[in-house]
Amino acid sequence: MVAEKIDYVAEIARLKKEKNAVLLVHYYQIAEIQDIADYIGDSLGLSQQAAKTDADMIVFAGVRFMAETAKILSPNKKVILPDFNAGCSLEESAPYAEFKAFKDQHPDHIVISYVNCSAELKTLTDVVCTSSNAVKIVESFPKDQKIIFAPDKNLGGYINRVTGRNAEGRPMLLWDGACMVHETFSGKMITDLKAKHPNAEVVAHPESEESVLKLADYIGSTTGLLKHVINSPHQEFIVATESGILHQMRKSAPEKKFYVAPTSKNGHACKACSDCPHMKLNTLEKLYLCLRDETPEIILPAKMLTDARKPIEKMLELSAKFGL
Ligand code: 13P
Ligand code: SF4
Q1: Could you say which of 3.40.1010.20, 3.90.1150.10, 3.40.50.10800, 1.10.10.10 is the CATH number of the domain covering 182-275?
Q2: Helical H runs in 105-221?
Q3: pTM of the model
Q4: Ligand 1 center to residue 7 CA distance, Å?
Q5: Looking at ligand 1, which atom is closest to the CA of residue 42?
Q6: Chain-centre distance of CA 190, in angstroms?
Q7: Is 312 helix (H, G, I), strand (E, B) or coil?
Q8: Cβ(278) – ligand 2 distance below 6 Å
Q9: pLDDT interval class at 1 (50, 70, 90)
Q10: CATH class of domain segment(s) 90-180+307-322
Q11: With 21 labelled, which of 11, 115, 213, 214 sits at a CA distance of 20 to 30 A?
């Protein structure tokens, strides 16, 4: 007997309606999932949507820390995700116990955490930030405020440089974490590619290393990068962030040309390194199955939900104040 072929797109639409579910999608998802999103955006936009949705269920096509953030903001809703194993190298870099010990050694510091961390780590945090509001959030504190920034040393280093904290000798203490995708972009190979496309602008996500950010004409979150390439008079772009964003860039500016920034690992060119192995775990089939079976579901202890909510709400309040 031949198994019946399932039309995943049609079935996902049917199940969403039946269950009053909203599908939130990050730009790093595969094109087929991006194309059926109810909302597609960067980490800040997705948290804002999760906080205000009136759906009964949130289906999060992204990675686990994003779905956890949605659950923390909407604790009474069911939050499901296609693959529970979709983690993040930044989250893994900052285990709770190690980070707590570090924080305890610096009692006069506040903690600003990048949203790419566990819900547990957020309970040790004063304010959460994303790549689109990180600079403004740090700047909202007095210059002499001592800060621990975790877990991304590249984003933290970028903020130290932009806010002048380095020059003034009051840099934030940086946790030693990095994104496994962004740290593979190669400054040398980007320079070579730029020589072949001299009119191309280099745009980069601030999770990239300093050697890459130095080459960038524009640095911003995924939403920032997308808006920039749409509005820029340039026709060609070298894009240093996860490859998924190129789908939206090509859809939004079909007349322009986009090249994924080249990556290298252990001194060798690496074609697939700009694909996040966590983000790319999600497929249409898994998305269909998670909606049908309502699992895997994000379930967090009540105390963690309340404690992790405070620094995320603080971020949303500050972002609203900044008009973000
Ligand atoms: P943004 O969504 O803030 O651009 O961050 C990208 C990212 O690394 C998500 O994991
Ligand atoms: Fe984490 Fe990097 Fe993947 Fe984003 S792209 S989920 S930061 S590993």
Answers
A1: 3.40.50.10800
A2: 119-122, 134-139, 153-163, 187-196, 210-213
A3: 0.96
A4: 30
A5: 2
A6: 22
A7: helix
A8: yes
A9: low
A10: alpha beta
A11: 115
